[in-house]
């Protein structure tokens, strides 16, 4: 590689420009070239590699980065400008000495607020009321039941930063909050004003179940027909994590036949979804376009924190955004 650090952004259409990243890296490196390569989901790793050429760092929002792409580009850093790292071969990166980064804390508040917004919309039947009113009706008793939030339990599957932000709000509103997270000590959960429970109890008690777990082999499809059937009557499912956590066919059945009252989904198994996805044409489902992370503030924080992590990883310095610190050695 030349003395100029070459950084390639694989998804420049995400913000429409890489000017923010360019400014951040120009402050950090004496000589840097920040380039953009629009990648389509249909392109293979070989196709992407031919277009990218050599690079010191690859930045991606949603494009997968397998080991073959790391080899072909010779990169030393792969950065996911988001929180989730599914689609990046972290194990393969570590074996190659490639540092992988993400941005774990840039949108905690935004996602927490979105979780609550989806939950309250579902519990109060806002989509049903809106659709009915648009059809010329004026009926207040369309949704049953509508219950005080103080009588309901708000559950979290995984209790990381974003779930904690949502729990702060849920507690303030008056919900009883519970969480299941096998990676946390019970005391850590209690310190947030939330009751720690096991997975089965979480499912059976949660009037609102918020999915906040990362997508892994263990969590893929974790919310299946059996889990949905064990949720309380007239309960609500909220997912702001990854669509693949949920069996969507089973979700439709649970909405049709019970026990679910409604669902609030910021993520789907396939994004963007096809027009034929049955979840899109229901008054008892609120769907937003993977927007829970978004605010003007979070965009600025994503670029700033993401760039800081890339620089630290390139220079082999410790940083909270480095996913595989063992690759620093």
UniProtKB/TrEMBL annotation:
Q: Read off the InterPro entries from this record.
A: CtBP, D-iso_2-hydroxyacid_DH_PdxB, D-isomer_2_OHA_DH_cat_dom, D-isomer_DH_CS, D-isomer_DH_NAD-bd, NAD(P)-bd_dom_sf
Q: Which PROSITE patterns match?
A: D_2_HYDROXYACID_DH_2 (PS00670)
Spell out the SUPFAM superfamilies in the cross-references.
Formate/glycerate dehydrogenase catalytic domain-like, NAD(P)-binding Rossmann-fold domains
Swiss-Prot/TrEMBL keywords: NAD, Oxidoreductase
Keyword NAD: yes or no?
Answer: yes
A GO molecular function assigned to this protein is: NAD binding
**D-isomer specific 2-hydroxyacid dehydrogenase catalytic domain spans which residues?**
34-324
Q: Does the keyword Transferase apply?
A: no
Domain of life where this protein originates:
Archaea
Q: Which residues form a coiled coil?
A: none
Q: Pinpoint the D-isomer specific 2-hydroxyacid dehydrogenase NAD-binding domain residues.
A: 116-292
**Family to which this protein belongs:** Belongs to the D-isomer specific 2-hydroxyacid dehydrogenase family.
Family matches, as PANTHER family: D-ISOMER SPECIFIC 2-HYDROXYACID DEHYDROGENASE CATALYTIC DOMAIN-CONTAINING PROTEIN-RELATED, D-ISOMER SPECIFIC 2-HYDROXYACID DEHYDROGENASE FAMILY PROTEIN (AFU_ORTHOLOGUE AFUA_1G13630)
Q: Would you tell me the protein name for this molecule?
A: C-terminal binding protein
The species is: Natrarchaeobius chitinivorans
């Amino acid at each position: 590689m030349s003395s100029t650090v070459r950084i390639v952004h694989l998804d420049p259409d995400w913000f429409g420009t890489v000017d923010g990243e360019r400014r951040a890296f120009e402050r950090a490196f004496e000589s840097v070239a920040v380039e953009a390569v629009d990648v389509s989901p249909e392109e293979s790793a070989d196709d992407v590699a031919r277009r990218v050429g050599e690079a010191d760092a690859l930045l991606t929002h949603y494009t997968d980065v397998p080991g073959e792409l790391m080899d072909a580009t010779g990169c030393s850093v792969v950065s996911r400008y988001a929180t989730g790292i599914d689609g990046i071969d972290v194990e393969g990166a570590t074996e190659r000495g490639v540092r992988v980064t993400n941005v774990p804390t840039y949108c905690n508040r935004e996602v927490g607020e979105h979780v609550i917004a989806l939950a309250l919309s579902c519990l109060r039947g806002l989509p049903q009321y809106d659709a009915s009113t648009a059809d010329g009706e004026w009926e207040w008793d369309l949704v049953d039941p509508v219950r005080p939030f103080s009588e309901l339990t708000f559950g979290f599957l995984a209790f990381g930063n974003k779930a904690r932000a949502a729990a702060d709000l849920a507690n303030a509103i008056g919900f009883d909050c519970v969480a299941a997270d096998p990676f946390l000590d019970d005391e850590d959960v209690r310190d947030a004003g939330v009751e720690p429970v096991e997975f089965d109890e979480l499912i059976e008690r949660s009037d609102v179940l918020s999915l906040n777990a990362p997508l892994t082999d263990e969590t893929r499809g974790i919310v299946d027909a059996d889990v949905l059937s064990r949720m309380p009557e007239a309960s609500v499912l909220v997912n702001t994590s990854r669509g693949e956590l949920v069996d969507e066919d089973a979700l439709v059945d649970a909405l049709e036949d019970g026990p679910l009252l409604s669902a609030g989904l910021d993520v789907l198994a396939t994004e963007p979804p096809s027009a034929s996805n049955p979840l899109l044409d229901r008054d008892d489902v609120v769907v937003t376009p993977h927007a829970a992370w978004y605010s003007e503030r979070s965009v600025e924080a994503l670029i700033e924190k993401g760039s800081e992590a890339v620089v630290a990883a390139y220079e082999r310095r410790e940083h909270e955004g480095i996913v595989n610190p063992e690759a620093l050695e």
